[in-house]
Every structure is written in structure tokens, then in C-alpha cells.
Design goal:
There is one protein chain. By secondary structure, the chain is mostly helical. It is built from two helices and no strands. Helix content is about 45%, strand content about 0%. The longest helix is centred in the middle third of the chain and has 12 residues.
Length: about 50
């Protein structure tokens, strides 16, 4: 668990649950090619300096 003194709790609202479930399953599943394609397509949006 995180130290309550330093953690920040935020409310997250998902507008499209079925799309979120599809992407989550793809990213966490065993089928590598779709995950790799998704990462390669969306890597330009990542903030790697954060």
C-alpha cells in the first residue's frame, strides 16, 4: 500500500467501457502482435520525459 501522507487519489470516469475493456484486454493479454502494433502506433504520444 502507498503511504496515505504522500498518495493522491483521483476519480477516473470511463466514457466507453466496452472500448476500454477491449484495449485493456489487448494490452494485458497473451496475443503479442496486436499489442505490439498498438504500442508502435501510439508511441509518438508517450511523454517519456515525465
Amino acid at each position: 500500500t502507498m503511504n496515505p501522507e504522500f498518495r493522491t487519489m483521483r476519480l477516473v470516469q470511463i466514457d466507453n467501457g466496452s472500448e476500454a475493456d477491449r484495449i485493456f484486454s489487448m494490452l494485458m493479454g497473451d496475443d503479442v502482435p496486436p499489442r505490439r502494433a498498438f504500442i508502435e502506433k501510439n508511441a509518438i504520444y508517450a511523454n517519456i520525459d515525465a
